[in-house]
Write a structure and sequence with these properties.
alpha/beta, 8 helices, eight-stranded parallel beta sheet, 13 strands, three-stranded antiparallel beta sheet
Length: about 280
């Protein structure tokens, strides 16, 4: 599964014609070899878990890993978070075909994936079953994707469905990161009289970088969206949430240093991937 990329202020990703493409610079390593202690590797194969030992915190798609494989990663001192999709129906996953009746709309840029009606009890039950299975594998936390269904469908029913799922996950007393989902997080935490305490952090994609899905090129994020995300993350930090960034770029000293400096100054964690497959 690949992480969803989109602008939270627009329904589709900004594809700026004048965007600066990131060129491969001569260097002694890759971003994965030189950056911080956080990594999002959803496309990683279980046989390649040895690369995870150099990170303090990793996000993997634990559905494809065994309990023993996860324990081996944790033995090196690495915390293992698992991807969990709470807002869209992925027809390539086992069991997701049974949710086809809940489809709301196709998911732009991602074939075989659809936005789902998260207010329906059968979806909430299904996500709960997936979470329970992942907990049995010994994961250290959750990385929840596609809360942005509330950005597209801003009804109380959709919002309450997400809240109910996250509240249920709180029973496991594990950290919960929301990937994207700024509209939901703003209502549930930043602007809430009683913030949803089960949410411990956010992961924001494409604060400084972006993807042109038409050409496959890695480009710079628009100035407007970058400023929006930075203001949003400042509010998250002020609210006591842990903040993580996932960026997409070929190795380039300028953009790499810009991201690293920003995160170091703000106490944020970050991962820069040269592949949209996060492998």
């Amino acid at each position: 599964m690949m992480i969803v990329l989109r602008s939270m202020k627009k329904l589709v990703i900004v594809l700026a014609a004048c965007a600066l493409l990131f060129s491969m610079a001569a260097c002694n390593g890759t971003p994965e070899q030189t950056q911080s202690s956080y990594a999002v590797l959803l496309g990683l194969n279980p046989e390649d878990t040895s690369v995870l030992a150099k990170y303090q915190t990793v996000v993997i798609d634990a559905q494809y890993f065994t309990h023993d494989e996860i324990a081996a990663v944790q033995a090196s001192g690495t915390a293992v978070y698992t991807y969990l999709n709470i807002g869209s129906i992925e027809t390539f996953r086992e069991g997701y075909d049974s949710m086809k009746d809940l489809i709301l709309a196709p998911y732009d840029n991602w074939p075989d994936e659809y936005w789902g009606d998260v207010s329906r009890q059968e979806w909430k039950d299904f996500v709960g079953e997936q979470a329970a299975a992942l907990i049995k594998k010994g994961v250290d936390g959750f990385f929840l994707d596609n809360a942005d269904v509330y950005y597209l469908y801003t009804s109380d029913a959709i919002y309450n469905g997400i809240v109910e799922m996250i509240t249920s996950l709180g029973q496991y007393d594990k950290p919960i990161l929301i990937n994207g989902g700024d509209v939901f997080v703003s209502r549930a935490v930043l602007d809430a009289a009683e913030p949803l305490s089960a949410i411990t952090g956010v992961n924001q994609e494409c604060v400084f970088t972006n993807i042109n899905f038409t050409t496959g090129a890695l480009i710079r994020q628009s100035s407007e969206d970058s400023q929006y995300y930075q203001a949003y993350l400042a509010r998250c930090k002020e609210a006591g949430l842990d903040v993580y960034l996932t960026e997409y770029a070929k190795f380039n000293n300028s953009v790499y240093n810009e991201i690293a400096q920003y995160c170091d100054q703000n106490g944020f964690h970050y991962y820069i991937s040269s592949s949209i497959n996060l492998d």
